[in-house]
Each structure stands twice: as structure tokens, then as C-alpha cells.
Amino acid sequence: MRINLMKVNIKSPWMWLVIFALITPLFSLLFGAANLSATDVAVCLFSDCHDEISKVIFWDIRFPRVAVGFLVGAALSLAGATLQNVTRNGLADPYLFGVVSGAGLGAAIATVFINNVLRVPTDAKGEAFAIALPLAAFLGALLAVSLVLILARTTFGRKVEHMLLAGVAVSFMLSALSHFILYVGDPFAANQVVFWLMGSLARAEVWYAWVMLPIVAICMSLLLLFGPQIDALLLGDENALTLGVNVKYLRVLCLTICAGLTACVVAYCGGIGFVGLMIPHIVRNWIGVTSRALLLGSALFGGIFMVLVDVFARVAIDGQEIPIGIITSAIGSVFFLLAMKQRG
Amino acid sequence: MANAPALKASNISVKIDNKPILNGISLGLPAGKLYGVLGPNGAGKTTLLKCLSAQLNGKGEVLWQGQDITTLDIKSLAQQVAVVNQINDTVFALTSQQVIEMGLLPHKTLLARRNDEDEKAIQNALNAVGLVDKRQQLFSALSGGEQQRCLIARALVQRSPLLILDEPVNHLDVYYQHQILQLLKALCRSQNKTIVVSLHDLTLAASYCDELGLLSQGNLVATGLPKDVLQATLLTKTFNVPCEVKHSQDGYLQVNFRPEFNAQRSFFQGSTCA
Predict the structure, then answer these.
(1) How many structural domains is chain A composed of?
(2) A148 vs A144: CA distance, rounded Å
(3) Is there a contact between B90 and A225 if contact means CB atoms under 8 Å apart?
(4) Mutate which of B47, B55, B69, B74 to test chain A, going by most A C-beta atoms within 10 A?
(5) Which residue numbers delimit the ABC transporter domain (chain B) (predicted)?
(6) Residue A168 lies in a domain
């Protein structure tokens, strides 16, 4: 198959997104505490590393971090884009919607249970956490979604636009609970709480990426499949129903998928705020509002954004690393205010 | 039976918060007819249309082509009934074409792609409502009338034999009021569509609708041909405003409400006029 280069549209946002999605992770592999030259990185990537130290640095530290970072950005952006379209609220995001707090609560309970109740030996904790953490986080996220749906229905007059208010309430409620559980149940509670609050890619391991990749891929495929139906929700529930969309089931399905996406991020990397708010917002203005374009664009742009933020987190302060959640929250809060101003 | 009603409602009653909104409405409409639902604000027009399109389940039965519409699954229902609701707001910047394309949804599986027939249906609908040059414009940037026409185009793309439109000419200027109703009437004639529409302009209703139904406080007080429904006494009583109905020589009816007829009585406070 011959590609006609003359037909490549350089104004197409898709072309730039794909190019940056390929280049940014490679570029980010060059940065870190240890000195690895571009040649070292290229050799490690396409052949065997020169020495054992380079191998460990590249394959055990840098590569997992970049891969997990890209998947985290993609997952949070997908969840944010979906939440915004199904709730018809451009300010919806897994953080504000309470899903992150729910997943955090699940992860906190699993942490305390494995450490204090089961008293799993240190050498077996890795395996125990690998299974228990994402599962508990998913259940916690589902709990949050269920609470939001119930609250929105009973307290906020069934208006889907008011779901975000219910989400904020649930978010505070579940955060308080998870911090309390960690504080009471874990001798290293302060560290754990700080980890959840800040969010970090510092502990990323290769198997995180192998767990996250299928989850993100399956969730994204499902969301793309239902894209046109999600679009119908943009016209309001009443209109979507008259177009043959089963609004109730579609919304529950989408929220469950968002719970899954958020849970796999929170379980391994803590609460990383505002990515799910910012990225879909930018992509919507740049590429379009229909779900399939928005979801694909958000996944790519979210991945790129998170990888770049992680580079900044590693190099901004010499010899130290800033937790990535601090940077995303700092950028996101300003963005949130700007978005509010634009709406206002 | 050529004249058997395609759409038949029997004894429809609806209560919301224990307040009766519709009281035992029964009506029948043959295929290929344009039926106008009239009545003052709060008479139950929107509720009746919601019952006829199965958006609301009241007591009683609504049959479409002999089948109870509440037994149809959501997708089959959308293939049979297209609805243009009164309130339509979009929060994100959808273009007119994207809104119109949504009419294809009931006919598509999750993996189906758009084909030439779909493109043709969209183009025909855009032509029919006169929005060809606005297809790439944002829906939210269209005027009220253009938005209404865009939603009618979406209903046309839906290709359903029954169309239900709640006050479709509300935001339109006189030219487009006539254009839309002409279009709806033409659809009845050329495609044998059955169309139910709620209207406020009684003269317009008389000009275009084959049959009318007049609602008052949840009761169907008259139904039938325009000349039978649009009676001055009945309208005066229903709308609580003095009214006269003029018959032109070419068969047209003109309904005029004239509050000054009875200026000494304050009909705005609900007194009975005759």
C-alpha cells in the first residue's frame, strides 16, 4: 500500500496527536536522575543495554514510568471525557465526581486489610497488592458511582446536570473515610495518606502497565462502540430516549467503565487530579464534541500530557522529584477557574 | 379497512403528583393525516403527545398500527415514532449536521457505518427544511426557528411513519411557520406519514391540519374536522377570551380572539365569557 504524502493534511489534529503520542514517550525516556544518553536509550530500546546498571535504570525505572504515565493520562482523560458527555457537564471529572475518592477508599481498605488483618509477609505483599488493590479500588469506585446516582436521584431532583454536586459531596465523604481508615489502621498512615493525596508515578513497575493496558483498551473500545449513543445524550435524556437509546442502562454502563478506568489509576498511582477535566475540555475545543473523536483525542492527548508532566516532575528540582499530582492539580485548578470564567 | 385509525388512543388518563392532567382521552387518526392538538397553556397538550409517543405511560391504551406502543422496545419504538420535543438544549457545540445525523441512530447497529442511503436521507432532510447552507454551523448559533427546522430534519432522517411534534412552529417567523406546516402536510400526502402536532395558532391549524383535537383542563372537548372543532362558542369557553371564527369563500377558517369585545369584564381574572 503506497501512502500518498501529498494527501497528508498537516492541519489535521490527528496527524499531530499521533506524531506526538509516538515521539513524547521516546523523548521522555531521556530524562531522569541517572544520566542515560540518547544512544544508551536507543540501544536499550532496540537491542541489549551496554551494562547491567543501564538495563536496570531503563527497564525497571524509566520505561515502566513512561508507559504507566501514558496509560494513566489516557485512562483519566477517557474517564473525564465520558463523564462530561454522559452528564452533559463540561466540568465533570473523575476527581470531582467522587470516583477517585471511592477508588482511594477501596485501596485504603485493601491496604489496611492486607497489612493488619491478613498480616501478609513482606515478600508476598507484592502479589497480594497486585490483585487486591485494583479490585478493591474498582469496588470503591463503583460504590462512589452508586452513591452519586442515588443522591442525584433522591436529593437533587433527578437532574443529570446536578450529578456533579452529588459527586462533590460523595468525594468529600469517601475521602474523609479513607483517610480515617488509613490513620487508624496503618502505622505508616501518614505516608499512605500523602501518597493518595499527591498521586505519583514514582513507584511504577512494568507489571502495572501490563495490568492497565488491557483495562484501558477494553474500556476505550466499549466507549467507542457506544459513541453515537453517548452523543445522543448531549441532546438531553428525553431526546435520546426518542432516538432509541436506553438512557438508564447506557449511563450506568458508562459510569461503571469510568469507575474501572479510574480504579486502575488510583490503585497504583494515587489520586491525580484535574487531568480528566482539562484534557477533554481542550480536545473538545480543538477536535470536536462527538464522543468517538473526543474519546480518541482525549486518550492520545492525555497520554502525551501526563508523560510531559512527569518529565517536568523529574527535572524541575535538581535531585528531587515533585509528586505528579501536585503539578496536575496546580495546572488544573487554574484551568478550572478559566473554564468557569468562560462558561460564566 | 381503509379508514381504520393507524393511531388509536383509548381512555388515556394521567395524574402527576395526584393532580389529574389528562382525563380519559380517546382519539383515532387514520394514516397519512395531519392531526393538530389545540388548547390553552396547561390543558395537557404536551402530556398527551408524550403519551402518544410512549414517553409517558398513563392509564389507557395507545395503539399504533394495532400494536400497543408501550410493548415496543426502545429501538423499535424509535423506528416507528419520531419526536420533536418542545425544549431542546445542547450543552456542547454540536453542528446542525451532527444533530440531524442522530436521526440515523434507531436504524443502526453499534458497529454499522454510514452509507450512501444515509447521506441521501440527510441531504434530503436538509433540503426539505432549507438548512443546506447551515449544515456545518453550530446548533447553538442557529436562531430559534432554524433550531426547530434542524430538529424536524432529524425527525425526517429517522424515517418513522409516525411523527409527533410539540409546538414545532413556536419560534418561527410567519414564512417558516407556513413552510414547516406545508412540509408536514406534504409528508403526510407523499410518504403517508401520520403526524400529530400541537399548535397555538388556531388559524394556522385550520389551514393545514386534516383533523383537530381541542383540549381543555385535561379533557378532549372536541375532535374532528377543523370546521367542526373551531366553533366560536367552544373556543371562547376554552380559551376564556372572546373569539370569532370567519369562514372565507374558498373554505378557509380564520380565528380571531378579540378581548375588547368584553372589556368591561376582566377575563384575565378568570371570569367566564360568552
Answers:
(1) 1
(2) 6
(3) no
(4) B74
(5) 7-242
(6) yes
